[in-house]
Amino acid sequence: MKHHRAWVGLGSNLADPRSQLELALEELDQLPLTRLSIASRLYTSRPLGPRDQPDFINAVAGLETRLSPLALLDQLQALEQRHRRVRGRHWGPRTLDLDLLLFDQECLSVPRLTLPHPEMARRAFVLVPLAEMAPDLRLPDGNEVATLAQALGDSGNLKVLPNR
Ligand code: ROI
To answer: Given the CA of residue 93, which atom of ligand 1 is nearest to it?
Structure first.
């Protein structure tokens, strides 16, 4: 079975977001046929979408996996459920959000999953942590992560979270 490289975006703005993310990173490393190979620093970011919600903590993780994209998605969704993610208002606050951003250089569009993640090139809270680890990484369309991140400037008002 072949190894794949997957990138996952993590976000939380409820119920001690820093702990949600720190625990989620450990749990990603425990998923079947998967290990965490790299994690970005944690960032605080202003909410994209409705403003009347707490700031988010965001990070990105690089996984090595032998799962298929949909099997990995199943695992990520089960992990979200274990954090008792409340599915409330669209684009509202959440305890843990895991977005499958990239899976090798695959382009996929099925009802459950679009790869690359269709919003990632517009989201500073995804591109800035990703560029920290993999500036030379390119999306399947040829765009370089660092270039996309620079183009967004400081739109998400991202700040590295100080260590506790
Ligand atoms: N805004 C920020 N800053 N970070 C997120 O992770 C995030 N996730 C979301 C919405 C509500 C769109 N806004 C966000 O799902």
So the answer is: 11
- Rounded-to-integer distance, Cα 28 and Cα 76, Å: 8
Among 77, 70, 72, 119, which Cα is nearest to 98's? 77
Q: What tokens does 64 get?
A: 């090595």
Provide the 3-class DSSP secondary structure of residue 86. coil
Residue 94 known to be catalytic:
yes
Q: Which of 79, 40, 42 lies closest to 61, judged by CA?
A: 40
- Please give the number of the atom of ligand 1 that sits closest to the Cα of 55: 3
Q: Report which of 115, 133, 122 is spatially closest to residue 60, judged by C-alpha positions.
A: 133
Which pTM value belongs to this model? 0.93
Helix 124-133 × helix 145-152 angle, to 10°: 140
How many A from CA of 49 to the centre of ligand 1?
7
Identify the architecture of domain 4-160 in CATH: 2-Layer Sandwich (3.30)
Predicted local confidence at residue 163, as pLDDT: 79
